[in-house]
Amino acid sequence: MVIYTVRTGDTIDNIASRYDISADDIAYDNQIPFPYALAVGASLLLTQASYTLTSEDILVSASGRPAYSGGYAYPFISRWVLEQTLPYLTDLFIFSYGFTVEGTLIPPALDDTFMITLAKNYGVAPVLTLTPFGPDGMFSNYLITSIVNDEAAKAQLIEELVTQITERGFEGVDIDFEYILAEDRIPFAEFVSEVRTAINALGYPVSVALAPKTSDTQTGLLYEGKDYALLGEAADYVLLMTYEWGYTFGPPMAVAPLNKVREVVEYALTKIPAEKINLGIPNYGYDWTLPFVRGTSQAQNIGNIEAVQIAIAQGAPIQFDAVSQSPFFTYVQNGLTHEVWFEDVRSIHGKFGLMREYGLRGMSYWQIMRLFRANWLLQDGEFEG
Fold first, then answer.
1. Is 178 a catalytic residue?
2. CA–CA separation, 38 vs 27, rounded Å?
3. pLDDT digit string, tens, across residues 67-122
4. Catalytic site residue from 56, 83, 167, 178
């Protein structure tokens, strides 16, 4: 495989001729719609390329397959998208199950049975994702405090998790609790450990999602209740949520800048063995309207394929930031300047390289609701065996 950067004057036909591959394959692999327009600066994944590489090309070299590739999805995912994606996963995180202060499990509003069934048909483990969402749909530290400090409620929740797994065919539990109070740091880790004991007894693992910390003393509600060392011991494995530097209410920047991701990984490795760490990878980008005004501005969430189509429609060349290892572009529409950051096969290739460098267990994608076919082909090409 080759990662190719589109240049002025390129068409899929002349690229196909140059690399001795099918133009249809280029269009299919990279989800390029008719009439097959290209954005200058965009990254294309070329499979089965046989042309001698230029200095601007990236050769994809295969190494051992990671033990794990997980993806989060809501029950309203398109069945077609799910079927296109499942062949590249080991685990499907079904998002999400809530609970009451008494420990009663609350299933998703939509039936997730088809996801469990499809996952098993593809040999993928369906995983129940547990989240503390309040009535407003936001993470509730009141719910977290209630469940981790009430032995009766905790026992009830664990019992209901066991029932869901045994009756419905889940093959694991993922605990995604955010905004944990600092004083609940130890009770939360104990809760994870108790869930693990019960679920391990059924033969399945328990994972926990970790906010992207870079030190023990990092302040903020996202971080203070997450003790990497304690949670690394409590769970079978962890997910580093290494994304959302660029986010809906923040200033324009890469969603998962590689330099920042590296800092989180390096800190995590001082607390948790590499073989228990999964790297979080975003499957989306953002479109900001400028100027950014904190407290007022709100970026639009977009897909990676959608981002390239916006660049094409606006005639905007795509640039690639060397520090963050992320693509971006700007355009003007209706007199307003926009700045877009997203993921492409170059940025994903950089994250895969970081995983190999540190020997991490695998990767987890937030989220797989939009198909990004080149990502999955790249994953297959980079991790063989």
1. yes
2. 10
3. 799 999 999 999 999 999 999 999 999 999 999 999 999 999 999 999 999 999 99
4. 178
